[in-house]
Design brief:
Layout lengths: L3 E4 L3 E5 L5 E5 L4 H4 L2 E14 L7 E14 L5 E9 L3 E11 L5 E12 L8 E7 L2 E3 L4 E10 L4 E13 L1
Antiparallel strand pairs: 1-2, 2-3, 4-5, 4-12, 6-7, 7-8, 8-9, 8-10, 11-12
Length: 167
């Protein structure tokens, strides 16, 4: 009987004489890591919730998004949200993908503003598309968007959003 081991990019299997195979996850090798790109996103928002009683509520929010991509692999959607004043939620969405050379495409970006009696509502009152970008390794791009409650004509329900994505 011959004892051999089989090694793939993601799994290692040991073939034993009894025809039993045991598979265990393999740790990422340097070669595998070189086929990956880490893309970081940073979002900052200034949100205003109009109040018909007293002063408007103003909130400054920020968060980060990190994605590890496989070069030449599938697109990965990203999203995050922030809430303000008990009635407003602002969401940021975009998709990233890396080509085999590590160049990252940022597509399908948009900012959505939801406003109703609670922050968890699905009442979309304003949306703004973000342009696409191609990011070479080490490069970044920044988008700025103003979105407000256009659906109900309330310009003081609004958000100013900055998204920066780095390859």
């Amino acid at each position: 009987m011959r004892h051999d081991s089989y090694r793939s990019a993601l799994w290692r299997a040991l073939i034993v004489p009894a025809a039993v195979a045991i598979a265990v996850p393999a740790l990422a090798t340097d070669a595998q890591a070189s086929h990956q790109r880490t893309v970081t996103g940073r979002v900052s928002m200034r949100i205003m919730d109009w109040e018909n009683f007293g002063p408007n509520t103003v909130c400054n929010r920020g968060f980060s998004l990190t994605t590890v991509l496989t070069k030449g692999g599938p697109s990965v959607p990203n999203s995050g949200s922030a809430k303000c004043g008990g009635e407003i939620r602002v969401e940021v969405h975009y998709t990233v993908a890396a080509d085999p050379n590590g160049v990252v495409r940022v597509t399908a970006g948009r900012v959505d503003l939801y406003e109703e009696d609670t922050e968890d509502n699905r009442d979309l009152d304003g949306s703004r598309a973000l342009g696409n970008a191609i990011l070479f390794p080490g490069a970044g791009a920044t988008w700025r968007a103003h979105v407000q409650n256009w659906a109900e004509g309330e310009p003081d329900d609004k958000a100013d959003v900055t998204l920066t994505v780095r390859n």
